[in-house]
Amino acid sequence: MRKIAFVFGVLSLALLSCDKTPTETEKPPEIGEYELYLETKFVTSSQSAPYFEDVSVNGNILVSFSNGNGFELWGYAVDNEEWSLIHSSSGINYGGYRGANYSPDEKYITFASSNTIYAMTADGSEVWPVFNGLCGLYDWLDKTRVLYVGEEPGFILWAVDVETLEKERILDPKDIGCFRYPEVMSESFITVSPDGNYLAISGHERTGVGDPENNRVRWYNVIADTGTWEYRLYETQDYGFNGTFSSDSSKVPYRSGFRLEDAGMYELWYYDVESETFKVYFRRYNFAYVFSGGLTYADPFWTSDSKATLHYYSDKDGNFRVYRVPIEPAYPS
Question: Residue 144 maps to which CATH number?
Answer without folding.
Answer: 2.120.10
